[in-house]
Design brief:
Layout: E1 5-9, E2 15-17, E3 32-36, H1 43-52, H2 69-72, E4 90-92, H3 94-100, E5 105-109, H4 119-132, E6 138-141, H5 145-157, E7 161-166, H6 172-180, E8 184-188, H7 192-206, E9 209-210, H8 216-222, H9 224-232, E10 240-244, H10 249-263, E11 272-278, H11 283-289, H12 315-324, E12 328-332, H13 334-346, H14 353-367, E13 377-381, H15 389-398, H16 416-424
Helix pairs in contact: 4-5, 4-8, 5-6, 8-10, 9-10, 10-12, 13-14
Length: 425
Amino acid sequence: MSAATWQVCAACGSEISETDPHPRCPRCGGLLEVRHRPPPQGGHALRATFDARRGVWRGALASGVWRFIEAVLPNAGEHILTYPEGNTPLLTSAPVAHWAGSPALLLKHEGLNPTGSFKDRGMTVGVTQARRIGARAVSCASTGNTAASLAAYAALAGLPALVLVPKDQVAAGKLAQALAYGARTLLVRGNFDDCLELADQASERLGVYLLNSVNPFRLEGQKTIVFELLQQLSWDPPDWIVVPAGNLGNTAAFGKALEEGRAWGLIDRVPRLAAVQAEGAAPFASSFRSGFARLDRVTPHTLATAISIGNPVSHERAARAIRETNGVVTTVSDDDILEAKAAVDGAGIGCEPASAAAVAGVRRLVKEGVIGKTDRVVAVLTGHVLKDPATVVHYHQEREPRPARANRPVEIEVNLAEVERLMRG
């Protein structure tokens, strides 16, 4: 391909145009990857270009995704659809760092994107690409966050949206967003993997543009989480980047960002990736233990619904990311996730359960000696605390035995003396 950007099939090596509408390889059905020719300027000049845009307040370059347009979709031009998204903070929290046993821990809070999750970074690129190819409608399968983001960006673009979610397995906050933003919402009597298979089939038969992370343009947007945190660290990479792992789109995107960042001279060394799964939904962790010799599909069971996925579509891409960064994959229990979430919430930061898996994973890897006490670590919080209010209320009001961090509300009469007594107590 002579173009600056094109697509390559990871399975058969076929190359197709960047504007080909197929979400998978039209020859073999394999996963596609977006490739870019290295920008003509060297790493130092490219960093300077990206840094100069941090002061832009309006238009596409105000976005924490499109600020890095040369590494995302250089030819997007007038088709760019942006909220804007990104520009999320890199937070220091002594209480969370102490709980995790990692003094240099930083938290990249992607829950502060417009619809409350990191999905907005991928969706701005995915819907922009849908506009470029003239898509008539867009669709996705989702555990909630993708549906919310797709619905919002489709509404901004004026495109019909179809979302398929597993019935009774989506947090109320996320389902409410999909409905509020006007997406045609189907409650499927199955799990996420069933929804994705159905969405895949519907996309092929009905010609609806599929915007799950099988779509390579989604990952181009999600790469910018890494570019932005590196920029926030003055392009001095941390030792570790720790991320929750469900369908593995972020793990794959992070590996791609680090590979390109080093190849283009943005960074001179690559952090190690740590992917963290819930014990009840851990096919990737099982595969890691076998040296990625196989992927066993599982029936997922975890309260962290955003990563409750038993057959992750980006397995091969994520496995490559772990290999190339000398990374690791670990698991944490639902109890670990709830304890980590309470620590993050109690520090005034807040996150959804799947996000807390990253912090719980840091704690486990520190205890095991995989992450050193002095290592610089960035844990990615993928979603906002209000994405799953039912879990918060259950933990603090109803869970038994009462967790140490539970903040039980107290019912009183209309009596100032009772207020005074409780405040003193």
